[in-house]
Every structure is written in structure tokens, then in C-alpha cells.
Amino acid sequence: MAKCSFCGSVLAPGTGMIFVEADGKVLYFCRQKCEKNMLKLRRKPYDVRWSKLFKKAEK
């Protein structure tokens, strides 16, 4: 099972998207919202309140 690279949620088998960067780094996304926030808008998951990584960093 993979985790979303942006929000940290667990991906069910056969769902989500895989993005491979030019340097070979693999990014997993659970939905297009996460993909857009990370790649196009260049947001950090620790700054977005709805991500699990924000809640983890808040503690």
C-alpha cells in the first residue's frame, strides 16, 4: 500500500495516480486536488490544514 505524497492518506490498490519526476523520484497522489497543490501550486503539505501531515506537525 502506498501513501499520498501530499496529504499522507493511504491509497487503496488500483486507485490514485503515480507521477515520476525527471530525476526518478516517484510521487503518489490520491486525487487531483493533491496533485495540483503539490506540482502546480507548489504548496507544502505542512501548510495546508486539510492534510494529515499538517495535523501531525501541529502536535
The name of the CATH architecture is Roll
Provide the number of structural domains.
1
In angstroms, what separates the terminal alpha carbons?
A: 25 Å
CATH fold description: Ribosomal Protein L24e, Chain: T
Give the tally of β-strands. Answer: 2
Note poorly predicted spans: none
* CATH class wording: Mainly Beta
Radius of gyration, CA atoms, in whole angstroms: 11 Å
How is the topology of this model organized?
Elements lengths: L16 E4 L5 E4 L2 H9 L11 H7 L1
Antiparallel strand pairs: 1-2
Write structural notes for this entry.
The protein is an alpha+beta fold. The chain has 2 helices and 2 strands. The protein has one domain: Ribosomal Protein L24e, Chain: T, CATH 2.30.170. It is 27% helix and 14% strand. A hairpin with a 5-residue loop joins strand 1 and strand 2. The longest helix has 9 residues. It is globular, with a radius of gyration of 11 Å. The model has no long low-confidence stretch (mean pLDDT 92).
